[in-house]
Amino acid sequence: MTQDPVRLGRAMLGTLPEDIARPGYDLADLSPGIVHIGTGNFHRAHQAWYLHRLMQQGLAQDWAIIGAGVRPGDAAMRDRLLAQDCLTTLIELSPEGTSAEVCGAMIDFLPVAPDNAPLIAQMADPAIRIVSLTVTEGGYFVNPSTGHFDPTHPDIAHDAAHPDTPRTAFGAIVAALRLRRAAGHGSFTVQSCDNLRGNGAITRDAVVGLARLSDPDLAAWIEGACTFPNSMVDCIVPATGPAEIEAARAFGIEDAAPVTHENFRQWVIEDAFCAGRPPWDKVGATFTDDVHDYEAMKIRILNAGHQVLANAGELLGCATIDDCMNDPRIAPFWRRVETTEIVPHVAPVPGMTPAAYMQLIETRFANPAIRDTTRRVAFDGSSRHAGFVLPILRDALDKDAPVEGLALVEALWARMCEGTREDGSKIAPNDPHWDQLRATALIARDRPAAWLAQPATYGDLARTPRFAEAFDRWLRMIWAEGTEAALAAYLAGDAAA
């Protein structure tokens, strides 16, 4: 007789199936040390997992996580997690099989309020020594054309004018630091865990830049007292839907927000923590004074590589990334772009060459157990192309290196944003700026230069003849002959076909 799944919660941990790993530490003994803003799947499968591993060793009991969010939609995640005492079922998807464990590193989730008052009050508590973030690559108020903090963004302008009732995570951080400074409590570390090269420096620019708009003295104090470590984070974590909830049930757990993940994790961190840190290196994290080469290798080969796959896959109806890697039209395209136009612009790191890392990524992308959707990977292309693909393109142009494949990647994105696949089916909106992108993509069908005339994304690249001409050629071919024909022409070396 099959046992009904156990509803996840502290009181029920002892009744979980025997093969489910669970906290070996007493959850009642944990006290908070970290506030994490943006408590989605990646954070719970990555940063929270590393902390959970330390706690399993009897360490870091005073570094438990309090979850937080600044968007109205975060309230739904809060409700789901609080209903199960902030526990999460992590399901590892390996080609050899699956396994599950329950993570208990998070102990609370703050109310989500328009003025962020609960978040500000919690971060002002001197027990909080790290405030970490996963707010997506597009959440740092960076002007893509300059690469720097954008003080003119409406939300930033609001927070500068209303510093006690901010809308943004960065406004809340500034408000909490103002309270801590006034009370003599000292500062905390602000730790970005998003896929941005120089994520710590970008975070510093956002926090200090915003503070400077309303309180220059506070900005100077933050600049001297706080630390903003750079880091590289890596683990493929699909979105959660009915299949993932059913996977947890198959393990005997009723979990409203389980997380599936691959059997690979990496975390490389600059050791710059002004108020202490957990010893994450004891459970596999790497501390180094030079994160940038690790960041570049991962962001260029994996994250840019995802964009090479995703738009072609969406247009040709490949539902998942492993489907793309098994598609005879898309996989060779990915390999050639990676080998000839991405890997040459990546430096080695200790113990790993760019070519070896590319082979590792190919294996991970092709993992049939990870049903990572093409749609998820293609989401927010306006941030991901600007952040992941275009810096490589600029390097290639500076070095007079090949750019035909990267130009085709951009043309495929432009075609995808028109909103239909090659078979005529509709692509649902998949970018915060979808309406604007779709309108531009429709114009670019007959006038490709219109797509590059988006200064927030492409800057001066529209005036770079070698790229602009290649982009024009590829987009016209895609519309005239189809995505498959363009991929074939690129692989044949027939760039001018």
From TrEMBL:
Keywords: Oxidoreductase
Gene3D superfamilies in alphabetical order: N-(1-d-carboxylethyl)-l-norvaline Dehydrogenase, domain 2, NAD(P)-binding Rossmann-like Domain
Gene Ontology terms for molecular function: mannitol 2-dehydrogenase activity
EC number(s) recorded for this UniProt protein: 1.1.1.67
All residue ranges annotated as the Mannitol dehydrogenase N-terminal domain in the record: 33-282
A Pfam family that the UniProt record links to this protein: Mannitol_dh
Top-level EC class as recorded in UniProt: oxidoreductase
Superkingdom, natural source: Bacteria
InterPro entries (UniProt xref): 6-PGluconate_DH-like_C_sf (IPR008927), 6PGD_dom2 (IPR013328), Mannitol_DH (IPR000669), Mannitol_DH/Oxidoreductase (IPR050988), Mannitol_DH_C (IPR013118), Mannitol_DH_N (IPR013131), NAD(P)-bd_dom_sf (IPR036291)
Residue ranges of domain Mannitol dehydrogenase C-terminal in the record: 290-477
Protein name (Swiss-Prot/TrEMBL): Mannitol 2-dehydrogenase
